[in-house]
Amino acid sequence: MKLKRIHHVAIIASDYALSKHFYCQILGMHLLEEHYRVESDSWKADLALDNQYQIELFSFPTPPPRLSYPEACGLRHLAFSVDDLDKWIDYLRQHDVACEAPRVDPYTQKRFTFFADPDGLPLELYSES
């Protein structure tokens, strides 16, 4: 098994506008897309650095302090790009690593799953095929 590359880093901001300003205006990332998600009263912005590295910047109305779940302030999860999501899920399960049922990204139609490292840090496998 071989990971291809890091696909994106997701961050939940306590102050969306301030964080978007920081990443775009101070760090020089550019805004690729921005979506308001009515169902969660939240924003999602895709930010890029040299069109290679992407940060997904999220807002939520009242995010809890970081525990170990992906919907809290701070680092949301680290995502790895893979060729065959189902093979990876099987591989992780063979190593006693639980994976969530695969989901489909509503904007890209790509499949993904979440799992956790030994400390509970949320990790994602994202299929580009």
Automatic annotation (TrEMBL):
A Pfam family: Glyoxalase
Keyword Metal-binding: yes
Entry keyword set: Metal-binding
Keyword Metal-binding annotated: yes
PANTHER family, A to Z: FOSFOMYCIN RESISTANCE PROTEIN FOSX, LYASE, PUTATIVE-RELATED-RELATED
NCBIfam families: PRK11478.1
UniProt name for this protein: VOC family protein
Species this chain originates from: Providencia manganoxydans
Lineage: Bacteria, Pseudomonadati, Pseudomonadota, Gammaproteobacteria, Enterobacterales
